[in-house]
């Protein structure tokens, strides 16, 4: 498929955005070339995610979870297959279009919190809105709402070094939600946290998905966190081997 320039194309009347499907992954494969030969990170992955669903993507290290999330989020291109987010054909976009899609439609949360050390919690949360030149009054109101949502309103003025790991991840989640994305993609967001804090963060993610009316795909290896999801998709050796509701 030929990549299109900057604009984000819709896929017509049958687009996922008109059918209640938030994400559509169709026969996605990703092969990397290495000195030892081709590495098949993904092989023919197909599934749909309805709007508002919280999906746990699970599997051992090397199963393809991160590669799949990167393909869904436009950080990487599949070798073959298609990915659609709402009405947008991710795999038809050039780099400019994918950048706009990530800015306007997606939110990313990673193991590493990625906060700006010199900025306060509130300033970190407001940063994406500054980049979009959101009016100060609107930005401040949104920041206050998000910090309240993640339970950090009393810590708005503190810098990352003054916060615990769990609190920093809460700031990262609030920042990810700043521009009201439709889809949240989280890659092992509790990987650096202890079990109790990790469970609290997963519960928070479930709550904010509901509160913000979002869809979420979250990779995890923790069985206790899988139980909080609406659905579990399991990968093994780059293949989808199990898809369980509830």
Describe the protein in words:
The structure is a single chain. This protein has a domain of 172 residues: P-loop containing nucleotide triphosphate hydrolases (Rossmann fold, 3-Layer(aba) Sandwich), CATH 3.40.50. Helix content is 31%, strand content 28%. It has seven helices and ten strands. The protein has a six-stranded mixed β-sheet with strand order 6-7-8-3-9-10, with helices on both faces. The protein has a four-stranded antiparallel β-sheet with strand order 2-1-4-5, with helices on one face. Helix 6 links the parallel strand 7 and strand 8. The protein is globular, with a radius of gyration of 18 Å. The N terminus is likely disordered.
Concise summary:
The chain has 246 residues and is α/β, with parallel strands linked by helices. The chain contains seven helices and ten strands. The strands form two sheets. Strands 6-7-8-3-9-10 form a six-stranded mixed sheet, with helices on both faces. Strands 2-1-4-5 form a four-stranded antiparallel sheet, covered by helices on one side.
């Amino acid at each position: 498929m030929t990549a299109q320039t900057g604009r984000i194309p819709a896929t017509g009347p049958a687009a996922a955005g008109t059918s209640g499907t938030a994400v559509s992954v169709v026969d996605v494969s990703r092969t990397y070339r290495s000195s030892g030969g081709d590495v098949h990170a993904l092989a023919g992955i197909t599934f749909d995610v309805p709007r508002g669903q919280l999906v746990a993507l699970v599997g051992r290290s090397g199963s393809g979870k991160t590669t799949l999330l990167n393909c869904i989020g436009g950080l990487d291109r599949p070798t073959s297959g298609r990915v659609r987010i709402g009405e947008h054909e991710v795999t038809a976009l050039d780099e400019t279009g994918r950048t706009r899609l990530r800015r306007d439609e997606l939110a990313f949360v990673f193991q590493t919190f990625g906060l700006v050390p010199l900025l306060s919690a509130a300033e970190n949360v407001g940063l994406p809105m500054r980049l979009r030149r959101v009016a100060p009054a609107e930005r401040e109101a949104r920041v206050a709402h998000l910090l309240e949502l993640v339970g950090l309103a009393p810590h708005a003025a503190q810098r990352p070094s003054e916060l615990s790991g769990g609190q920093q991840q809460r700031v990262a989640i609030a920042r990810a939600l700043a521009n009201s994305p439709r889809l949240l993609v989280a890659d092992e967001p509790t990987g650096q946290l202890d079990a109790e804090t990790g469970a609290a963060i997963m519960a928070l993610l479930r709550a904010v998905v509901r509160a913000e009316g979002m869809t979420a795909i979250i990779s995890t290896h923790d069985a206790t966190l899988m139980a909080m999801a609406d659905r579990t998709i399991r990968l093994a050796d780059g293949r989808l081997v199990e898809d369980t509701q509830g």
